[in-house]
Structures are given as structure tokens and as C-alpha cells.
Automatic annotation (TrEMBL):
Family: Belongs to the HMG-CoA reductase family.
Keyword set, alphabetical order: NAD, Oxidoreductase
Domain of life: Bacteria
Organism: Maribacter flavus
The protein's name: 3-hydroxy-3-methylglutaryl coenzyme A reductase
EC number(s) recorded for this UniProt protein: 1.1.1.88
Pathway assigned in UniProt: Metabolic intermediate metabolism; (R)-mevalonate degradation; (S)-3-hydroxy-3-methylglutaryl-CoA from (R)-mevalonate: step 1/1
Catalytic activity, as annotated: (R)-mevalonate + 2 NAD(+) + CoA = (3S)-3-hydroxy-3-methylglutaryl-CoA + 2 NADH + 2 H(+)
GO molecular function, one term: hydroxymethylglutaryl-CoA reductase (NADH) activity
NAD recorded as keyword: yes
InterPro entries: HMG_CoA_Rdtase (IPR002202), HMG_CoA_Rdtase_bac-typ (IPR004553), HMG_CoA_Rdtase_cat_sf (IPR023074), HMG_CoA_Rdtase_CS (IPR023076), HMG_CoA_Rdtase_NAD(P)-bd_sf (IPR009023), HMG_CoA_Rdtase_sub-bd_dom_sf (IPR009029)
NCBIfam families referenced in this protein's UniProt entry, alphabetically: HMG_CoA_R_NAD
Enzyme class: oxidoreductase
Cross-referenced Pfam families: HMG-CoA_red
Amino acid sequence: MKKPIAGFSKLSKSEKIEWIAANYTQNPQESKKILESYWNSDSRLQQLHDEFIENTISNFYMPMGIAPNFLINDRLYAIPMAIEESSVVAAASKAAKFWEGRGGFRTTVLGTEKVGQVHFIYHGSTPKLLDFFKNIKPTLLSEAEHLTQSMQKRGGGIKDIVLKDKTGELSNYYQLHCTFETQDAMGANFINSCLEQFAETLKKEALAHPDFSEQEKQLEVVMSILSNYVPNCLVKAEVRCPIDQLDLTQDISPRDFAEKMVRAVEIAKVEPYRAVTHNKGIMNGIDAVVLATGNDFRAIEAGAHAYAAKDGTYSSLTHAKIEGDLFSFWIEIPLAVGTVGGLTKLHPLVKLNLEILQQPSAVELMQIMAVAGLAQNFAAVSSLVTTGIQKGHMKMHLMNILNQHNATDKEKEAILAHFKTHTVTHRGVLNSLENLRK
Ligand code: MEV
């Protein structure tokens, strides 16, 4: 029978490891060995990681790969990607190479606006509240000035505060809907600090407002928090080429291929079951760059999927069309990311990855990420409409199967050679391994 523990966070790292290994694992000695084998030998670096979160006991590694040859607005990039899924970097690299020979990717940033809200409950007259808000808006802004000065120096700050009457959706519910420009920062801390200040000013001013009744003065702030839904922090990335250049494989004519691509995207537009998987493939590319650059992939995921449902049905984030002899394929996606603050100066690999990406501004990073998503989607959908996904996927997964069965280097060599000309299946790989070991 397991018992709860009090004061776990106060234990030393080795005490935490002792406790978890003894209480939750079958073989505590072996468990401790595994946890310690992932520690960094540089104690300073290990301490840095330990201090990122609470109760750290080890590091969780992910492979980091490079997808080279991305031509974006005539500039070449090699994109670092942190991801565990076998085929993602290979697919991105393949799509990058393909489009590099066809003019590359074109990108445009359509907006950089971030959002935060103060949600509050007010029992009283709406016209009086609107009037009150009009009066206090300058105070809301001036009392946040101590927070906004350095952001303003960098060209950012608060863009606007709007009072929204949400009582149609929920009784007595109103909000301050606030928009921000945060330049190269993702801006979560800046936005949340401003919002908490707005909430303080709002409560203070309501209490002092002479036209409010006693009940109206007791305006209740429920919460103040940024929104990860950022439909106006938007980037577009596009590829296009004459159809006859879509000569990916001998098995299908370029026009048939183009039509199949368009049809596949149309299906993802109208069928949510397909759209979710279609967009998951896009996020394979985007999340890998988000992680490698120390950004918040949960925020990006949440915002991207909300955007995919913005018209009331969950739909594709990419689009495709044929106009005469021209094939175009593009993505429009909200991406609120930063290249300063957060882990960017702290995590040595993040710093290095930003250097590899030629020290992008946040706006440039949005473009690189959108391209990674588009490339990934192009690779996935082009496989789906031609050979099917399993051929390439299993080829990449082959090494995982071999490692799972402790194949030696010699066995790997022989089996990799065999599967150059045979279809990879789990059973097939095991049979080959068994035959070799006989
Ligand atoms: C697998 O991680 C991603 C795909 O399922 C994406 C797609 O179906 O478009 C291959």
C-alpha cells in the first residue's frame, strides 16, 4: 500500500530519487542507475536543468536533428528540430530539398498582436459600467506604465484595452480584452503583469466610483491571464510551382499528383477526423522547431488548433489550389513565439539553435516555423496520396525495431541492406534477425 509523502520538494535530489525508486519501482538499484545515467557530466549544466523546474530527478533527452536546405525568401536555413518521431526530420529535409529547386518558400507575417484578458463579474447597469470604463481607461494605462517602459523602448507595449459585455453568454460576465505588442519576446510575463495591474486598478477605481451603487462597487475580478488564442499573431508560408515540376515520383503524373494533393487538402477541410491528423502532421514540424528554440509548444499547439476551428468546424491549417498550370500550397497559422527571454539565453542548446537559425527575430522565427509545418505537411500528404505513409515510416522505424531487439552493428548492417529492397514490417524484421541469429 503506497503512502502519501509530506514535504517531498524539501528533500535533496538524491533523497527524492531514493524515495521514488523505493516506493514506485520494482528494482530501485536499476531505477537509480537509469535516472543517473541521464545526468549531465558537467555539474554546472546539470544544476541549470535541475533548477528549471521543481523536484528534478533527471533529464529527459530527445534527439535533435537538422533539416538542411530550407530556402525561405531566398535565404538558406538549416533548421534544428527536437523530436522523437523517426520520420519527421527525414520528411522535412526531403520537402526542403524538393522546394529548394523550385523557388523555395515565401512567407509573410500578417500580424503580431498578443492578447490577454481580465475576466470579471459585475452586478449592475451596463451603461454605467461602459461610462466608468471610458473614464478609467487612461488610469488603467498610466498605472501600468512602470511595467511597460522597457517594452515601449523596444517598440512594444499595450495596444488597446476594450471592455466587452459577455452577459449574453454568462450572467454578469464582462472582460477587459487587452491587446499587446511584445516584439521579440513571447511576452507571457509582460502580459500577465500588465493584466494583474489592470485588475488592481479596475477594483480600486470601482470602489471609488461615485456613480456606482454599493453592489456595483463590489466588482469581482475572477482572473487575469493572457490568451494562447492569437488569431492576429499570424504568419503565412507558401510554395508554388508549375505543375509539370511536381515530378516527385515516376508512378504518377505531375498533374495527377497536384490534383490528389488538392483533393487531400479538401478532405481535411471538411472532415474533422482527417483534419486533426492532417494538422498533427503539420505540428510534427512546428513543435520540433518550437522545442529546439526553447519556446512553449503547449501554447503553440493550443493556439493552432483553436485557429483551425475558428470558423465553427475543425479544419485544415493548410490550403492547396491549382490555377491553370500553377500549383500552390500554403499554410496560415498563429504562432506567438519569442527569441529573447524564457530559455533563450539560459539553455545552451537553445542558444546554439538560435545561432544556427542566424539569430532570428521573433517575426523571422514565426516564418521559419510556419515553413517547417508546411514542409512537413507537404511530405506527409504527398506520401499519403502516392506510396502510403508506412513505407517511409517503417523504413525510419526499422532502426528502432533493431535497437529494441539489441541488434549488433553487424546485424544492423545486414538487415538495413536487406530492407533497401524489401518492405519493412515488424514481423519481417524479426524474421530476418532470427534467421541471422540461427
Ligand atoms: C504522423 O505523425 C503524421 C501523419 O499522420 C500526418 C498526416 O496523416 O497527414 C502522417
